[in-house]
Specification:
about 450 residues, mainly alpha, two-stranded antiparallel sheet, globular
Length: about 450
Amino acid sequence: MRQLSEHASAGPSAPAPAWHGSLPGALARRATATALEIARRSTDPESVIDLVMASAEQAVHPYGWSYPGFAHGHAGLALLHVLAAEAEPAEPGRRAALDTAFSYIREAVAGTAGTPLTEPGLLSGTSGLALALAACTRAEERFGPSLDRLHEKLAAQVMDLPLPTVERGVSDSDYDMVSGAAGTLSYLCGIDSPSPAVRAAADRLLDYLVWLGEPPRDLSLTRRWLISPELCRGERDHPYGHLNVGLAHGIPGPLAALATAWLAGYRRPGQEAALRGVLEWVLAIRRADGQGPVWPSEVPIDETGAELRPSAPLDQIAWCYGTAGVAVALLPVAEALGEESLRALAVASFEAVLRRLPERASFSPTFCHGLAGVLVLCLEFAAHGSELAAAETPRVLELLLELADPDLPVLFRDEEEPGVFVDSPSLLSGSTGIALALLAATAPRRPSWFRAFLTR
């Protein structure tokens, strides 16, 4: 990477403290400078929309852009600029970043008039907009009444949500982190002083996840979260269905959300039993390779309904699928159940991921399936006492920064597929998510937006 400024490339210095530990001072300055440059290149809404349109032409599977959107929209940009304000070194820069953030959040909220958010989901629905608005409210309390109204709207949406309790009729979008019950519940659990309506909504989602984790009545069905072939996401060669093990769309999200709700004080009948039942299955499909524990991304079933558990799964090193996501999902479970051995397994599993990292020939820099997501997980495990994660954080950060190119519109580009590069300003698969990960690496406090991806 060509350095962005002389300040960013300063020589060795004393370690820079952060919430997860510390970083070499020069590396921390370089990370902050890179994140702020991404933010500065996304201050003009018209330029952002131009980039969105251009990226749609580049992509094989383009994501839509929504003004109220968190993962792909103005709400995500508002979050970035709020946090960029905290990292700006001088007051004029801080003020300008906040003004940009407030402009984006106002456009995001106003955008619901033309593009109503009818679903409560976290990455593309009302929960995501609320998360971004909450970040703005912490910086400007006058947004408070708007946030309260949005929370009430979110609660009403949850109460109206059709949550299928028909075995073999469940889709991953019903329960997952991206658009389902796990992600929305995770957000609701983070609301301070929840209203009765918010608590009722959280209880409803929690009851659904409890149902999902209970043993099925259909004896030919091993788990209620089975995805039938007609409900499969994307192109999958599973003619009899499969069980999803990815943190983004699979059962680790509900597992972690059940535990996060427990830690937030929510208690529902059958909750602990469901938590332990799902945990038992997740642990049972664990395998090991030369580096340590490893999980498959999915478990197909055969024509009899039996699970075809891979004997030697290949690890996908990412937030969305693979061992890293499963490992981080185990952390709140270990805390909720008070099981130190489970926390130790989570740490050992993520450390195995770090040992596999050099085997990867290349990485996309983005959050969902790339290095930015791996960096955030590394920070989380460093904060949870992993010495290897703490030691490897600078290396992962260096790998990410080396992918920056000042000649690109927003410094980084997603490799959507091998050889297909996309210049996206989005949070989930573009530069905004990368900038947020870089700012998280140097922040004095654990970012509240982690809840969108780690349940808390």
